[in-house]
Amino acid sequence: MEEKSENRCRWLNIRLKPGEYKVLEARFSNTTFQTMSEYHRALLMGKPVTVLNRDQSMDEVLQELILLRKALNPIGNNLNQAVRNINAAHGFPDIRLWITLLEIINGKLEPAICEIRDRMTNYANLWLQKLKAEKA
User: Fold this and answer.
1) In angstroms, what CA-CA distances link 52 with 21, 26, 57, 65, 67?
2) Separation CA 6–CA 110 (nearest Å)
3) What would the 3-class secondary structure string for 41-54 be?
């Protein structure tokens, strides 16, 4: 059975003070609705409104992870370049070249990996403390 769709043809006009409108606009910006009209219709009809919550305590962690990613990207690029150069040698393997390249890569990669491991351990401990505090 087909549902009959009806166009919205009725207008509801209200006047708001600038402060009232700012409050509504701020509440709308925290929801999942795409338009202000959808949001207001949901409120007026008593439909559920999904509000987005943002955990601001994660901002510092996210900034740290972004910095770590920025530090790792050049190391990965250097690794790719080294492997390309080795492959471009066309079957003339030089053991000294391999050893030198591996030492350089290890020298750059190992400290970065250790730093990431240490920071991730610290973040995990902080999250575990937060979870234990919430359960208590």
Assistant:
1) 20, 12, 15, 23, 26
2) 65
3) HHHHHCCCCCECCC
Please name the amino acid found at residue 32.
T
31, 51 contact by CB (below 8 A):
yes
Give the pLDDT of the chain (136 residues) as one tens digit per residue: 556 778 888 888 889 999 999 999 998 888 888 899 999 999 989 998 888 766 666 667 777 777 777 877 787 777 777 777 766 766 666 667 766 777 777 787 778 778 877 877 777 777 667 666 655 5
Neighbours of 44 (CB within 10 A): 9
Six-digit token pair at 55?
Answer: 């955990």
- Reading the block at residue 100, the tokens are 């030198």
